[in-house]
Every structure is written in structure tokens, then in C-alpha cells.
Amino acid sequence: MSGNLFGNDPVPSEPAAASDSEWLTAHCDGGSRGNPGPAGFGAVVVSPKGENLAELSEFLGIFTNNVAEYRGLLSVLEWVVKNGYKRVRVVSDSLLMVNQINGKYKVNSPDLRELWMQARGMIKQLDGFEITHALRHKNKDADRLANEAMDRGTGKPAAGRPAAAIPYPKAPGAPQPPSAGGSAPRPAAAPVASGSGKMFRGFVRDGQVHLLGDARLPDGVFVKVVVE
């Protein structure tokens, strides 16, 4: 595996003599309906014998596809490290993330850079790590779990269950490490004081501005919008 482009140590690789039976396999996926829009991830961790060890899935709030993909990878790494495993082969249909983790692409986005650093930190705790790209049809279970997470977050009913609308949680600008499952929304943040002069990021959809982050602006506050 090649080194990365940022002067850090290369991703740990397993010696050729290691037994394949020691390796877990994980498939991860993330998606966003709108990009940015309601986002979620899904992941499946499989034992060397082909047994499902874990299914990970979480609704994230309003994020881009790329952030959701990284959160899927982080959920796998967090589960593997937490449960004491040392080697994992990850399969993802995100070519961007795979090439960034393998050091072939630079990480220019500040949001992705933070997630990349979190992933690299957990990878360094492992004795063996590989990540490869696969087309979506070879990543079906992770894709299904990611879509189920987005369905839960947007109130879309699953088969045989009534809809239960969940308010979009606003995730912080510097993304937090993912939990290993569940989709409960984060607590609402306190409103930002008027006249604070604080800058927020967001996006426009259907003529309305949607903020990214934990801020809620009270009614009557004047804002200045600068197009990036």
C-alpha cells in the first residue's frame, strides 16, 4: 500500500505471512438525499467464517454524501477497535474516500480532513488494515442499512410500521466520532444570541437557507448571506 501525501506514517499493512483467517471483512456505505441533505450510513462487519458480527446504521442529519461515507468507515473502525479485533478489510463504493485513505488523493475539504484524521488515528491502532473500492451492487447490505437510516430520519415508514417523523439533528461543524448504531437525534442546541457576529455555513434549497451546525437563529435576526 502506498504512503499518503501529508507526511504522516503510511496506513499499517499486514505482513504477507499473516493468516487470512485473522481478518474481518466490513462493507460500509453512506448517502445523502440532496447532497447536502438528510444523510445516513450503514455498515456490516463479517467474521472470517462469513458470520455477521455487527450491522451498524445511523441517521446523521444534514450532511453531504462524502461526510456520510466517512462516517460509515468510522463506525466500522470504532466497532473493530472497541471489540478488540486487530485486522479488517473494508469495502466501500466511495472511490474518493478509498483513494484518500490510501493516500492517493489529497483531502482538501476541512470537514473531510477532520474525519480523515479520525480514521487514520483508529487505523494506527490496528495490526492490519486494507480498504478497497467496489461498485454499489457489490455493497448491497451496507447500502440497504444506509437507506434505512435515512428513512428513519425523514419519517419514511418501513414495511409494516407507521411513519415516525424525526427532526433533522444539526451536526456540529467539526464532526464527532460516530456511535456504533442507533438513530436517536442529538439534543437541540440553544439559540444564538442576536448580534453575536458569528459566521455560519449553510446551503440554499428551494429559495430557503438551511444552516449547517448546531445553531438556531431566533426570529427577527438580520443576517448577511455571502455566496461561497
General description of the model:
- The protein is α/β, with parallel strands linked by helices.
- It has two domains: 20-154, Ribonuclease H-like superfamily/Ribonuclease H (Nucleotidyltransferase, domain 5, 2-Layer Sandwich); 190-228, no CATH class.
- It has four helices and seven strands, in the order E-E-E-H-E-H-H-E-H-E-E.
- It has helices spanning 65-82, 95-101, 110-123, 140-154; strands spanning 24-32, 37-46, 52-63, 87-92, 128-133, 201-205, 208-212.
- Strands 3-2-1-4-5 form a five-stranded mixed β-sheet, with helices on both faces. Strands 6-7 form a two-stranded antiparallel sheet.
- A hairpin with a 2-residue loop joins strand 6 and strand 7.
- It is globular, with a radius of gyration of 19 Å.
- It starts with 23 loop residues before the first strand and ends in a 16-residue tail after the last strand.
- Residues 1-10, 12-18 and 160-190 have low confidence and may be disordered.
- It comes from Granulicella cerasi.
- Its EC number is 3.1.26.4.
- Residues 179-193 have a biased composition (Low complexity).
- Keywords: Hydrolase.
